[in-house]
Amino acid sequence: MAGNKWEWLGLDGLDGWWLSRRVFTHAMMERLTGEIRKSEARHAGELVLAIEHDTPGHSRETSIRALEVFGRLKVWDTPMRTGLLLYISLNKHKFEIVADRGIGVDPKQWDDICTILQTRFAARQYEQGLLQAIAAIEAVLQTSCGGQPSGDDGRNHLPDAPVLL
């Protein structure tokens, strides 16, 4: 039987809901917010972490849903076009990274970060996986858009707190 057992039974939303309530606690969200804030102080990128417990039925493809969330959360709305979305679909156990035009990176680097998340989440190491992914994203952004560009005002244009959808 291929795929997630909950998805096969039509109950994959319950799995995502359970994870979002039991694993992604307020304390964990505060720690992730702090890591994102520290990371953004070291480069011109703007990281938005979006965690969705139950992907809507109209979004069969996680990559398309990630693009939709990228637009709805206005991740593109930064002066230097250095917004980046790390999208997590808990019920589908999928991860997507969507980067704006100002971040010139080989897509394989994003795939490698998603593989780290896949491995850590499979081992139920959710927070460790996210912290490792944030650190890896920081390293990529320091190389791609390090420092504060002269055209940026140094402000934080996007929220640091993870968004639960």
UniProtKB/TrEMBL annotation:
Q: Which domain of life is it from?
A: Bacteria
Against Pfam families, the record matches this protein to:
TPM_phosphatase
Instruction: Pinpoint the TPM domain residues.
Output: 23-139
Q: What is this protein called?
A: TLP18.3/Psb32/MOLO-1 phosphatase superfamily protein
Q: Taxonomy-wise, where does this protein's organism fall, top ranks first?
A: Bacteria, Pseudomonadati, Pseudomonadota, Betaproteobacteria, Burkholderiales
